[in-house]
Amino acid sequence: MFVLHLLMAVFLLGYSADGSPTRRVSLTLPHPPATGETIWLKVEVGEIGHNQVHVTTSSGRELGTISTYGVKSGKPAGTYTLPVPADAMSGTHLTVLLSIIQGRTEHAASLREVKAVSIGLRPAKP
């Protein structure tokens, strides 16, 4: 069972390491991961058409790219999860940068394109 904790999400515009505009989201886990627990990022994607959501840490570490397929035009794309390596965290804090890749251009993800981002812990398997 995925236990989702959304304690803090602060949305700011910023720039990635390569100068591309991004949306900065700061998240906090309720506690450091226990042995065997895994960290997951949950991204609720709105209407993005054939574009992609690019997700990195504030230090530029790649967490993933969300590509949607089969979503009807004008419809929300759904919710996607990305694993977060424990060493990408700064204690219980993580800042991610969100951008939309549209062909060869990239822009900061709007609140319409990425509706919500949260971080959670998945308990260890027995």
Description:
It is a single chain. The protein has 126 residues and is mainly β. It has a single domain, classed as Jelly Rolls (Sandwich), CATH 2.60.120. Helix content is 0%, strand content 53%. It contains no helices and 10 strands. Strands 2, 3, 5, 6, 8 and 9 form a 6-stranded antiparallel β-sheet that branches. Strand 2 and strand 3 form a beta hairpin. The N and C termini lie close together (12 Å).
Strand coverage percent: over 45%
CATH C-level class is Mainly Beta
Q: What structural class is derived from the secondary structure elements?
A: mainly beta
The outline comes out as globular
The assigned CATH architecture is Sandwich
SSE sequence, one letter per element: EEEEEEEEEE
Count the beta strands: 10
How much helical structure, as a percent, in the residues? under 10%
- CATH topology description: Jelly Rolls
Task: Outline the fold blueprint.
Layout: E1 3-5, E2 10-15, E3 21-28, E4 38-45, E5 52-57, E6 62-67, E7 78-84, E8 93-102, E9 105-108, E10 114-122
Antiparallel strand pairs: 1-10, 2-3, 3-8, 4-7, 4-10, 5-6, 5-8, 8-9
